[in-house]
Amino acid sequence: MVNAPAENALKTVELPRFGTCSYSESDIFVFPWGLPGFEDFRTFIVIQLETQDSISWLQSLDDLNIALPLGDPWLFFPDYDPQMPGFAKLSLDLQNPEDFTVLAVMVGTDGGPTYMNLMAPIVVNLKTRIARQVPLEGSKYTVAMKIPVPAAMEEAQSAAVAEAEAAYATSQAQAGQIPG
Q: Which domain holds residue 69?
């Protein structure tokens, strides 16, 4: 008699971005319709890094080079009120609010602002592990909503820029005073 592998047996993969990662079949989320731009990729896991408590990563198992940052839209936009279209409710079998979660893809720029796609959130049925990106019909949201930066952080950034500019101006002034 041959023993079938247990459904929750751990599999290990080497991820280019995150290193060694172990997961079980029950950790997999299936996107039967793919994702825009990644239509052929259907199986993903969600990775939570200890150093990034407000960001999760949607890691493709079909192409290990693909990982999308996700965030809880209500963490950054407390008034977010997505109206789920009927096709999403039906296709994902969304019956009770506790059976699903809504996440949003995040996009950052080097040293610049971070954006969140609130127009097409990722909706996950937590019971069936089926997910899809759902475009919201007639939405006031966009695919690139700038994540607000807390005022204290903006002040600290402004102060740092002013300090750097002052140091640069001082160094330029001193450079001009040094005899050649």
A: 11-148
